[in-house]
Amino acid sequence: MRLLFLAVLRRHTGNAVTAERVRDHLEAAGHVCLLKDAADLESSSEIAHLIRAENLEAALALHLYRGGRLVQGHGIPFGIIFGGTDLNEDVNQREKNEVMGKVLEEARFAVAFTESMKEAAQTQWPHARGKIYVQSQGVVTVPNAAFNWNTFLHCPGINQNADNLHIFLLVCGLRQVKDPLYLVDAFSEWHQEEPNVYMVIVGPEVDPVFTREVKAKVKRTAGVRLLGEMPQEDLHAALKNCFAVVNSSVSEGMSAAILEAMDLEVPVLARNIPGNAAVVKHEVTGLLFSDPQEFVQLAKRLVRDPALEKEIVANGREYVRRYHSWQAERDTYQSLVRTLEGNIEQ
Fold this sequence. Notes:
The chain is α/β, with parallel strands linked by helices and about 350 residues long.
């Protein structure tokens, strides 16, 4: 089957990584999967032309609003995958909510990453109750064996001996919903007490205006550094070498960096929001904080309590193995896409 797969493909973001992984699953089943950036296809007529030109028989969209609205109404069957912004932000705007409800009416299936996302969707659009499936994200980590941790630290100007440092990595695209500056002041105060702790923010410059704000703030803040986007294998190697991974987002669907950290046996400190709390169970698979002061308290505790760190890491790794299997994800998507075979119902 020839499939159009629409997603928002900012490089090295969670969406892009998810889209590449799902495409691999579908191509492994023998489908031809044309992956396109929804941001490049703003009109229905462009989609119609693409469907005709490429002889596409079905479609899949990552993001109910940003992708789903573009694939509906073209006479080909389609499925959708919910994005975090669908249920955390777009749902609160009446016009977008109505559009998403209509897309769901036409979709043959919808995939939610968590039970809480599924419940939120069913509450908003009860008519879609029978077609929403939960499939958590599958995790595969491939750290670059040739990665040099000391070189990585020297790039943003951390020149101390790596053995004596505690590096907290915050992995995110620089945009407001990721809130990378949330912890900066509190972390800097801690760094001034304990100069061997650093927070390094790593990620692509997604929002140019906000990126300037982040750069200006980090430049004048002790103990916090900023690095640009990295190849996936290098990022996984950096995660593996750091002391802990941090997530301070205002909203999340399901954070790939959190799951990857767990897979690499690195402790996670995450802001207590629904998307993170669905993955991180406090003091079991990670630590959840509600404000910057609580983050610092928990981070200090983690530094001083190796037994807690060891327990969290073991539980996180087991959680990922049990609930975020790459093979289970492959089986689900291959099975769901089979429901798109055959013409759309008249």
